Amino acid sequence: MLKYGVPLALAVLLGVFLFIGLQRDPRYVPSPLIGKPAPEFTLPSLHDASYPVATKELLGQPWVLNVWGTWCGGCREEHDTLLAIASQKTVPIIGLNWKDDNGAAQRWLAQLGNPYAVVAEDREGRTAIDWGVYGAPETFLIGPDGIVLYKHIAPMTMAVWNKEFLPRIEAARAAAGSRS
Amino acid sequence: MSTFIRAGFLAALLAFGGQALAIDTEAAFDDPALQKRYEDINRELRCLVCQNQTIADSNATLAQDLRREVRDMIAAGKTDAEIREFMIERYGDFVLYRPRMTAQNFLLWAAPALLLLIAAVVLVRVVRRRAQESEIEPDGPEAGQS
Question: Which residue positions in chain A have pLDDT lower than 50?
Fold first, then answer.
């Protein structure tokens, strides 16, 4: 019994691990930023280069950073979802326009609608690197204390928003409220 | 004769084909020592959009941007360790092609030694048991034949 039972058990165990491994997305790279202070930036606004968009000014409320570009297919895919989320006015969505053409980006927002409270222009892609961005669209949730709470890599969907973002926003608000 | 021509063509391909693999069209540094550091670091960093390529092998925009960061950090006098730390802070350990030992992957690093240890224990036990069995019936007809 032991002679066949032990190898069989080991083989089944290995099979379970491999099966779990198959379900995982190899393209998903967990962000080391979760639970850490969000990288600060001050960038020109997409619509008015003289107007700076600064992360410091967003402290004290939960907010969302959405990394996008007109060259990014997934960004077009999630655009209507972002518009729907923005219309709920839960939290401000800050856009990070990643390595894009200013004119093209402005046209895109004029034509499709603008879900963003404000859009920061990262022409050189340095801010995106600071945030560990590797493939747009990426969406971060930042808490009132400036800590990164969550990162979603892939087009945003209502299901992800309701399941991953909303509960964290409520928890962050409750925690901030009890402290003040 | 045509074999020689073919061999010559192959040799030429092997000799010069490697240059086509270099993504950067021009050297990032005039100083060969700095250029070597630049190339060595690039070969150790993963291009995260193209996953199974290093940033030295890829011409994805992200790889270009990461090479620029590496170049600027070398120019600013940062050490190799500092540059690696910069990348890990942003992209996690996955960015390294030569993974470090951490709490999460310790088991993976220890696995070869552990498996060897288990195998050694099993081997010792099997050998002892066989030795005992042969002591019990030393004069059996099949002794030493199995």
Answer: none
**CA of B64 to nearest chain A CA: how many angstroms apart?**
10
B66 CB within 8 Å of a chain A CB: yes
Residue A35: its chain B contacts at CB < 8 A?
A: none
Query: Measuring CA to CA, which residue among A116, A114, A24, A99 is closest to residue A64?
Result: A116
pLDDT of B81 reads: 94
Phi, psi of A44 (to 5 degrees): -70, 145
Which CATH number is associated with domain B2-100?
1.10.8.640
Better pLDDT: B1 or B82: B82
The reported pLDDT for the residue numbered B20 is 47
What is the pLDDT at residue A180?
A: 59
**Full residue range of the structural domain in which residue A68 is found:** 33-179
Which CATH number belongs to the domain containing residue A148 in this structure? 3.40.30.10
Domain locations along chain B: 2-100, 101-146
- The nearest alpha carbon in chain A to B95 belongs to A29
> Model-level pTM?
0.79
> Is residue A37 a part of any domain in this protein?
yes
Contacts of A135 in chain B (CB under 8 A): 48-49, 62
User: What ipTM does this complex have?
Assistant: 0.82
CB contact under 8 A, A129 and B66: yes
Residue A12 in any domain: the answer is no
DSSP collapsed to 3 states, chain B:
CHHHHHHHHHHHHHHHHHHHHCCCCCCCCCCHHHHHHHHHHHCCEECCCCCCCECCCCCCHHHHHHHHHHHHHHHCCCCHHHHHHHHHHHHCHHHECCCCCCCCCHHHHHHHHHHHHHHHHHHHHHHHHHHHHHHHCCCCCCCCCC
C-alpha dihedral sign at B23, B28, B31, B34? negative
